[in-house]
Amino acid sequence: MKKALSILFCLAFILVSFTACSSNAMTEKNVTKTVDTAFTALKEFDTDTLQKYVDSSTLNTIVGFAQKHDQIKQLGQAIFENIDYKIKSIDLDKKTVTITVKNKNLAQGASDFATKLKNEYNTVQLLSKLNDEIFLNARLNELKQKISDAQMESDGIDITLNIEQGSKNLKLSFDEKAEDAVSGGALSSIKAIFGK
């Protein structure tokens, strides 16, 4: 009887351990769950979940600021709250997922906003303003209004994301094209202005 109980206990332990570790297995179910989790985190701009499920140089920078400034978090929510997505295909061998995404067309509003800032402040001045709560409230409200006024894009854009296997979960890697698509063109427009 003791042996039988010991064997059952060991089997239960193995099953629990396998279940706990299985969220990083490269399966269609886990990829789908990861995409759903990552895009829900984008829409809510849940910085903790984004850090866990998304690898993106630009988004990582924004998340860092959002964790220090609620205004940046609210801006992230405004940029991504209207995003719509659909998984088009999953390639487990190549470790990629192709997703059709659609957001508001934010390119022009972001470009106008960035141009205005660049005309008023040099880079050093602008960086110092990132800790000025009054500035952040006023200026980011302007950008949020532009986002609110923008129209949804008529067509979706296909993006292909690499899937990385972390120790506990899968993670989606966004390149510049993917960052731009999910942001409705806002990120590339801002980069274009400040890269000049």
Structural features, described:
This protein is an alpha+beta fold and 196 residues long. The protein is 61% helix and 15% strand. The protein has 10 helices and 5 strands, in the order αααβααββαααββαα. The chain has a 5-stranded mixed β-sheet with strand order 1-5-4-3-2. α4 crosses α5 and α5 packs parallel to α8.
Number of helices: 10
SSE ordering: HHHEHHEEHHHEEHH
Overall mean confidence score, pLDDT: 87
**Span between termini:** 76 Å
Q: What percentage of amino acids are in beta strands? A: 15-25%
Structural class: alpha+beta
How many runs of DSSP E, i.e. beta strands? 5
What is the rounded Rg?
Answer: 21 Å
- Shape from CA axes? globular
Main pleated sheet: 5 strands, mixed
Task: Please write out the topology.
Blueprint: H1 2-21, H2 28-44, H3 47-53, E1 54-55, H4 57-66, H5 70-80, E2 84-91, E3 96-102, H6 107-120, H7 123-129, H8 133-149, E4 157-165, E5 170-173, H9 176-182, H10 186-194
Parallel strand pairs: 1-5
Antiparallel strand pairs: 2-3, 3-4, 4-5
